[in-house]
UniProtKB/TrEMBL annotation:
Lineage summary: Eukaryota, Metazoa, Chordata, Craniata, Vertebrata
Protein name: Reverse transcriptase zinc-binding domain-containing protein
């Protein structure tokens, strides 16, 4: 498959009698391409992106896997001397280098993707392969995949399978409390009823957000993009920066799903999970109202969770010093900023 991955446009050429072109519009492809290729694909050709197209021409442009090389964790374009059989002149090389710099920001796919191995490489029975692959995706863990796709659409980028696995395997083990784990599961599966969903079920005319009363009350709007909810998360984010005494990216997948950013120190991640879970549970308590939790409610909830953490430690036979270290920054924060906790 050859295509302009760049500048938000996909132009398909000579894809096994244009099978994919007939099945998929550019708009649909742009919506879902990140789910198929999380990073810049191996099969993409920056040479093609800068080439003139002629009708019925065969595509023999070198792909990324042929013209880039890896040094440690860094990718670089091969020298012009190495690529002299593949590029016309220095100007052509400079144009390719420009495209490479743009794609490098996204990163490069190291291994072959399913799209490449199951659809692009085979030369026969392409439509059958496409159908079987779609059928496999549709019937294998359908509910989980549906939720994962919706989350990727909401946050605006693909959430890698490694992040989901980390959440399942380790992310939810920060506590032994089932009520807290249940909240994460409800978020993953998008369990909470929304005005949009209720309007569809009961044929209601009003599907506006319960908080702002302006935009459609979708799941992601009520949890993240509603101006009132956004202000609440901004408050929590600012308080957590005071707690940790450093800054880190504010991402919906971290606050809503517990996929903690790597810029949050490893020793602070347990506290981060308790803090964001407390915020979500408080939002859920005010779910169908215009009210939002206060800072004092969040602090009180988190202080209650300190006791839960101690119980978790006893259940798991953890050293008391580990629990104390997990919560030391929060205790210091309460004492320094609000005089709420006596050490």
């Amino acid at each position: 498959m050859e295509g302009k991955w760049h500048q938000g446009i996909l132009c398909l050429y000579n894809l096994h009698a244009c099978a994919l072109k007939r099945c998929m519009s550019i708009a649909v492809w742009m919506k879902y391409k990140d789910l198929l290729e999380g990073k810049t694909p191996r099969w993409l050709s920056p040479v093609e992106a800068k080439a003139r197209k002629r009708p019925n021409m065969e595509a023999h442009w070198p792909k990324y896997w042929e013209i880039i090389e890896r040094t440690g964790d860094n990718w670089k374009l091969q020298s012009q001397d190495k690529l002299k059989s593949k590029v016309r002149d220095w100007l052509h090389y400079a144009q390719i280098q420009e495209v490479f710099k743009m794609d490098k920001k996204v990163g490069f796919q190291v291994e072959k993707s399913k799209l490449e191995t199951e659809l692009l490489e085979p030369k026969t029975k392409v439509l059958s392969r496409m159908y079987n692959l779609l059928l496999k995706w549709n019937t294998q863990d359908e509910i989980v995949k549906s939720a994962m796709i919706k989350w990727a659409q909401d946050v605006g980028h693909n959430i890698m399978s490694e992040d989901w696995e980390r959440l399942w395997n380790t992310g939810m083990k920060f506590t032994a409390c089932n009520a807290l784990k249940e909240n994460i599961m409800k978020m993953v599966y998008r369990w909470y009823m929304t005005p949009v969903k209720l309007a569809k079920i009961y044929h209601l005319s009003d599907n506006k957000c319960w908080k702002c009363q302006e935009a459609e009350g979708t799941f992601f709007h009520l949890w993240w993009t509603c101006p009132k909810v956004k202000a609440f998360w901004e408050m929590i984010y600012n308080e957590l920066k005071k707690v940790f005494r450093y800054t880190f990216p504010k991402k919906p997948e971290a606050c809503l799903l517990g996929m903690v950013d790597r810029k949050v120190s490893k020793k602070d991640r347990t506290l981060f999970m308790y803090a964001t879970t407390a915020a979500r549970i408080l939002i859920a308590k005010h779910w169908k109202t215009q009210d939002l939790p206060t800072l004092e409610e969040w602090q009180t909830q988190l202080m209650d969770y300190m006791e839960l953490a101690e119980m978790t430690g006893r259940i798991r036979d953890l050293d008391e010093e580990i629990i104390e270290e997990d919560w030391k920054k929060f205790k210091d924060y309460l004492q320094k900023h609000y005089k709420l906790y006596e050490c």
